[in-house]
Fold:
Amino acid sequence: TEYETILVETRGRVGWITLHRPEALNALNTQLMHDVVDAATGFDADRGIGAIVVTGSERAFAAGADIKEMEAKSGLDMIMGDHFGEWSRFAAIRTPVVAAVAGYALGGGCELAMMCDIIIAADTAKFGQPEINLGVIPGLGGSQRLLRAIGYYKAADLVLTGRMMDAVEAERSGLVSRVVPAADLLAEAGKIADTIASKSLPSVFAAKAALDAAMETTLAEGLRFERQAFAALFSTHDQKEGMAAFREKRSPDFTNS
Ligand code: HXC
Structure:
């Protein structure tokens, strides 16, 4: 498929989505949302894909929702436009997603990174929720996922002042899992994605679902989910293969079944 606002590529078992609206620092307009959701759900339905990387340009991962597109809208327009529902489909895909962030990840851009499972940052990355400077607030999880990621006080500092934090502060805060030199960003993100894609898909899906349960539910419910999912994996071929390979001191040959 040809897309207007993104570049899409498959490398081995990894699907790559590169945001590409250079004229607007990859601002997330409606077309870009359709494109990203379509590409990501397509990869998610493909058994040949075991991980996805989402990245932007050197200057910007994404500088937020498209302010020029939103400016004139009413409250009802915003609800009826279903921006939230469609992005939730991205957040709900089963396949793990690595966000590779260089430059600005602001507002909806930071929120898109937080809908991914691992955020790896170039040393040039800048994160923030600057919506307060526009007379609004985060609308795609910035007041919810950010708080769960970095805690109330750090999240409140960012959401209430609209300031940016650099890659080092973002890693220290727990938003970013690794900071790398900008020149190494895509190679490092690719390595992480390749590693995930080499595992057994049923176990990878179960692991992501269990982590999601930890974000979304109570401890008791999350533990119940984890125990069920753990038990269910014992009816897969790959559990028998993984444990046999350990005993036989060889690498496992997973069949995703
Ligand atoms: C539309 C944007 C944009 C955005 C940048 N551009 N961000 N267009 N929406 N969010 C455009 C600029 O208008 C400009 O085009 C071009 O991209 C380059 O940007 P500059 O501002 O000239 O670059 P620079 O001076 O380097 O400043 C970079 C920046 C600044 C600090 C990132 O662009 C900025 O503050 N952008 C807005 C960041 C922001 O407030 N994001 C939150 C959006 S609200 P032209 O053609 O004009 O020169 C949000 C809510 C989420 O995300 C909820 C969703 C439902």
About this structure: Residues 24-25, 27, 63-68, 83, 104, 106-108, 130-131, 134, 138-140 surround hexanoyl-coenzyme A (CB under 6 Å). Residues 39 and 218 are 32 Å apart (CA to CA). The longest helix spans residues 201-216. The longest strand covers residues 6-11.
